[in-house]
Amino acid sequence: MLHDLIVKTAALPVKATGALVIYVAEDAEPTGGAAAVWQATGLDWTKLAAASNFKGKQGQMLDLLAPPNVEAQRLLVLGSGKPSNGSSPSAWADRGGSLASKLMGLKVTRAAVLLDDDAATPERVGELAAGLTLRHYRFDRYKSAKKDDTDNSLAVTLHIASRAAADKAIADRMAVANGQILARDLVHEPPNVLGTTEFMERASELTELGLEVEVLDGAAMEELGMGALLAVAQGSDRPPYLVIMSWKGGKDGDAPLAFVGKGVVFDTGGISLKQGAGMEDMKGDMGGAAAVIGLMQALATRKAAVNAIGVIGLVENMPSSNAYRPGDILKAMSGTTIEVVNTDAEGRLVLADALWYTQGRFKPRAMINLATLTGAIGVALGNDHAGLFSNNDDLAGKLLAAGLATGEKVWRMPLGPAYDKLIESRFADIKNSGGRPAGSITAAQFLLRFVNDVPWAHLDIAGVALGSPQTETNGAWASGFGVTLLDRLVRDNYEGK
Ligand code: BES
Ligand code: MN
Ligand code: ZN
């Protein structure tokens, strides 16, 4: 692999082969182990910091090659900013991401990082390890390796005060990072490789972690009356599936949390065909389903004390002589009739049946869906926030808080009966698109028609899941948005409760 990363922990003292990394806070001098390292060099801190204009600000770096009396090729002094504004989980993940980016930029392949001060709690070191891994990630499995290719591998040893507690916290947090990486991998996979069947098989592999996985095929969905989801699938030779994953880590009989994902493995728009430019991005139209799989893997790997259901609707939206058409009237599982006015508004049709099925069968305590649902959400919020729509203020508040803690931020958007007017149909109960005005809201309002009184939230991740939303912890095209956010939601609000 071009991009292997090894992160391990070790006790003090520090022995470095490549780079030795120490942190210094804003307007401060090296302290603790960093002070000892610095003292060994015999260099004058005040003079060097002044000469290089190093203030210890977050992101600042002082790179000393061949430092005297230190067993390392280089000593990297990194600014950690003000201690007060860097205590959230996302700040530590960002610190790890920034570190990875610096090491990669310098083409350092081996580093030892000194993290011995009191602020470096086991949880925070876990965040740093996750951020490091997430930033180092690249999807390069289809690149032929050449002899003269640069070595992108990286081995980092985190030297921490207490290993026992940190190893557990790191493993726990890395389970989530690896779930996010699974989501990224699935979003990146080309659509010729990852069809509905292959996607379903990837989900089925989760049984190895103790999850139960159930697959409904087209015939089973026909039986259930899922006319909305099936209509989207009918233009493709690839069969539709509804995959149900359950993790039972909570008390027997406790109502589960339900996570529902849009899994359109490729969205051509169907008969309402999309334009050619950029259509390749629509391989990522299963980003919601990918996040659900990644989350379920994370919960199972870290053995979360919660009952959780993951449901994904897998279809491909293609034009063909058998494709559904504008003008078609569909009957959803709920009995609602839907006039199709645009076959490119297919995600809401898939979710309509998936949501109805999930709430009816599992009676969840809360139901959250993720979907790359509308281009309009990217127009409204760019790639800094996902759109949040909810029928429940308490659930919305929990998601907003989880967003701030993890850096996977969400911004609440309105719902309301006024928007129902835009999706009224002349011939059926509703139509599947309200046109350009309030495009993301009418899509959410459409979903709401398939939700009863369960606390529900819809995350429109079209602006944040794909198209290189670059952050401190993401340098890739697909971000894997949602896994870390929802893991945090579970941890902070539902686990063991
Ligand atoms: N999958 C798209 C939305 C999308 C756009 C996701 C860009 C990721 C990046 C969705 O199925 C779609 O085509 N939505 C239409 C809705 C319209 C026809 C009402 C859109 O956004 O244009
Ligand atoms: Mn579409
Ligand atoms: Zn779509």
How would you explain this protein's 3D organization?
- This protein has helices at residues 32-41, 45-51, 89-105, 122-136, 163-188, 196-204, 218-224, 227-233, 287-301, 347-362, 376-381, 393-406, 417-420, 439-448, 483-493; strands at 5-10, 19-24, 61-65, 74-79, 110-115, 154-160, 212-216, 241-248, 257-267, 307-317, 329-331, 337-339, 366-371, 386-390, 410-412, 430-431, 456-460.
- Helix content is 35%, strand content 20%.
- The chain has an eight-stranded mixed β-sheet, sandwiched between helices. The protein has a six-stranded mixed β-sheet with strand order 1-6-5-2-4-3, with helices on both faces.
- Helix 4 runs parallel beside helix 5 and helix 10 packs parallel to helix 14 (439-448).
- It contains 15 helices and 17 strands.
- It is an alpha/beta fold and 497 residues long.
- Helix 4 (122-136) links the parallel strand 5 (110-115) and strand 6 (154-160).
- The mean pLDDT is 95.
- The site of manganese (II) ion (MN) has 4 residues, from loops.
